[in-house]
Design goal:
By secondary structure, the chain is an all-alpha fold. The protein has a domain of 45 residues. Helix content is 55%, strand content 0%. It contains three helices and no strands. The radius of gyration is 16 Å and the shape is extended. The protein starts with 17 loop residues before the first helix and ends in a 5-residue tail after the last helix.
Length: 67
C-alpha cells in the first residue's frame, strides 16, 4: 500500500478443536515449553520484546488449553 493512512489487515482465525490440541501438546507442560521456545525465538529474531514474551509465557502457564 502506498500513500498516507493506516494499513488495513484482514483475516480469520479458526481455533483448533480439543482433539487437535491434545495431539499437538500431550500435556500442559509440553504446551508451556512450546510457548517458551516460540517466545524466545521471536525475541531472538527481533519480532517480540522480552517483556511481551514474559506476558505470553505467564498466560500460557496460567491457562494452558490442555491438561
Amino acid at each position: 500500500q502506498t500513500g498516507e493512512g493506516p494499513i488495513q489487515f484482514s483475516g480469520q482465525t479458526i481455533p483448533f478443536d480439543q482433539a487437535t490440541l491434545d495431539a499437538l501438546y500431550p500435556s500442559a507442560q509440553a504446551y508451556i515449553q512450546a510457548v517458551e521456545g516460540a517466545a524466545q525465538a521471536a525475541v531472538d529474531g527481533g519480532f517480540l520484546l522480552p517483556a511481551d514474551a514474559e506476558t505470553l509465557i505467564a498466560q500460557a502457564r496460567e491457562n494452558p488449553p490442555v491438561d
